[in-house]
Amino acid sequence: MYVQSFTDAKGNSGTLFGLLNKCRTAPGQRLLREWLARPLCDIRQICDRQNAVESLVQNSEVRRTLSDMLLPKVPDCSVLARKLVLSKAKLQDCYRVYQLAVLLRHFERTLRELFDDEEKNAPAVKDLMLEPICYALLHFDRYCELIRSTVDEEYHEKTGDFRIRPDIDPELLRISDDMCALEKKAEKAKTHVRKPIACMDLRVLFLAGVEEEKNIRKCKFITVVDVSKGSGVRFRDGDLAEINERHQVLNNIYRTAQQDLEKKVIATCGQLFHNFFSEFG
């Protein structure tokens, strides 16, 4: 029925699913398809669902929070679950599940507001929306604890990349300390370049106006990459380039050193996720 085409009074054609689909997530769209393909037959369940929908219709503030602020941030759980269960996940996938658990806290607070404001439809809100979220959060506690204790969140916020926390392994800690020392040297090198030349830092490269070309070429430690009237002068500092190369080498060593720990973390995440879906699903 949901794939059957129709034409309305204005001549617009489509399907029932296309007409009803206002879902903000891929899982929501799949659920809507399932509901249309297998509609409820129990009158009590139908009324409960209608009551839950009615509560959202009547509370525009909660509805907007869910629709515009929270639901767009929900990842495709089916894809993540498949990766974790089939041992094909990466550390970033494990962290995305953790972010989902954090997001569920916001769902819980929002739905609790809806529940507290309700009288007539409170039981439906509790049974169909609030309690499933609370149950999920309860079972995500161990998962979240694992991620917080093993994934370097500070590094992720700084670089956007993922790695195992250095403080849980002496070798990783040593490499991380060496990388931090190089980063401090890099900052000093950048300051050394910026003092005589008005320029913008582009990580390893620098960018300056064409008028700075003469000053740049006077510096022995600088290599000009290219010059154009439109973009200016791009150049690199020899010391900074060397520091960057050493930093890259250490980063690769860190990645290699963390492999065993990373596999254990991912495997444990997969097991916890599997246990959760075995009970919750």
What does this structure look like?
By secondary structure, the chain is an alpha+beta fold. The chain contains twelve helices and six strands. The protein has two domains: 40-149, MutS, DNA mismatch repair protein, Chain A, domain 3 (Orthogonal Bundle), CATH 1.10.1420.10; 158-279, MutS, DNA mismatch repair protein, Chain A, domain 3 (Orthogonal Bundle), CATH 1.10.1420.
How do you describe this structure in short?
The protein is of the alpha+beta class. 67% of the residues lie in helices and 10% in strands.
Number of helices: 12
Biggest beta sheet attributes:
4 strands, antiparallel
Helix % is 55-70%
Please trace the helix and strand order, writing H or E for each element.
EEHHHHHHHHHEEHEEHH
Write down the overall mean pLDDT.
84
GO molecular function: ATP binding; ATP-dependent DNA damage sensor activity; mismatched DNA binding
Protein name: DNA mismatch repair protein MutS core domain-containing protein
Pfam families: MutS_III
Write out key terms for the chains shown.
281 residues, alpha+beta, MutS, DNA mismatch repair protein, Chain A, domain 3, 2 domains, four-stranded antiparallel β-sheet, two-stranded antiparallel sheet, elongated
SSE layout:
Blueprint: E1 5-7, E2 13-15, H1 16-20, H2 26-37, H3 43-58, H4 60-70, H5 77-85, H6 91-117, H7 122-150, H8 153-159, H9 170-194, E3 199-202, E4 205-208, H10 213-218, E5 222-228, E6 232-237, H11 238-257, H12 259-280
Antiparallel strand pairs: 1-2, 3-4, 4-6, 5-6
Helix pairs in contact: 3-7, 4-6, 5-6, 5-12, 6-7, 7-12, 9-11
